[in-house]
Amino acid sequence: MQKKFFLIAATTTAASLLLAGCAGGGAGSGGGSNGSPAAPKDTRIGVSLPSQDEERWITDGSAIKEGLEKIGYQVDLQYANNDIPTQQQQVDQMITQGADLLLLAPLDGTALTPQLQAAAGSNIPIISYDRFVRNSADVDVYVTFDNFKVGAQQATSLLIGLGVLNKDGSEGSAKGPFNIELFGGSLDDNNATFVFNGGMSVLQKYIDNGTLVITSGQNKLAQVATENWSQQKAQERMDNLLTASYTGGPALHGVLTPNDSVARGVITSLRNAGYGPTLTSGQKPMPVTTGQDAEVASVKLVNDDVQFSTVFKDTRTLAAQAVSAAEDLLAGKEPQVNDTKSYDNGSKIVPSFLVPIQPIYKDNIKTALIDSGYYTAAEVEAGRLQ
Ligand code: BGC
Question: Which of 23, 106, 168, 319 could form a disulfide with 63 if both were Cys (CB 3.0 to 4.6 A apart)?
Answer without folding.
Answer: 319
